[in-house]
Amino acid sequence: MIMTSCxxxxxxxxxxxxxxxxxxxxxxxxxxxxxxxxxxxxxxxTNLKLYRFIDSWMGTPYAYGGKTKSxxxxxxxxxxxxxxxxxxxxxxSSAEIFEHCTPVxxxxxxxxxxxxxxxxxxxxxxxxxxxxxxxxVHASTQLGVVINSLNEPYYQKYFYRAGRIN
Length: 166
Hints:
- There is one protein chain.
- 30% of the residues lie in helices and 22% in strands.
- The protein is α+β, with helices and mostly antiparallel strands.
- It has a single domain, classed as endopeptidase domain like (from Nostoc punctiforme) (endopeptidase fold (from Nostoc punctiforme)), CATH 3.90.1720.
- The strands form two sheets. The protein has a six-stranded antiparallel sheet. A two-stranded antiparallel ribbon has the order 1-2.
C-alpha cells in the first residue's frame, strides 16, 4: 500500500475522558468485530464510544483538508475522534498536533494516544490514533479510514514518534 502525508492545517487544546457504554446485542457484535480486527479478546474492547465512532467512519474516503463523512484527512479524523470520544479539542496539521503532545514511548502507548509518521518528509506528515495491540486507526490517502498495524513494514519505515494530548 502507498500512503502519502495529509498535512492539513488546524490548533490544540484538551478536556476529559470518554465513559464506557453499557452492554447489549449491538455492543457484543461491535466487541466481536473490533476484537478480531485488533487481535484482542472481546472483553478488552471496553471503550464502546470509541469503537462506535470508528465504526461510523470506517471506509470514509480520504480528502485533503476534509472533516466530514464525504471525505476526511488524517488530522481531521484525529481531531473529530479526539473531540467526540475524549472531549479533547485538537486541530491543525499533523505536524502542529505533534507539537502539542507530550511524548510517549512506543511501548507505553495507550488507547487514544496519537502516532506520528514522517512519510517522504523531514517533518511529521501523518497522524493516527492508537487502539491496542500495535493497531491504530487513521485516514489513509489510498483507503480512507482504516485500521493498520504499527508492525506493518510500511508503518515501521515511516513511524516517527507517539504523543498524548493532556
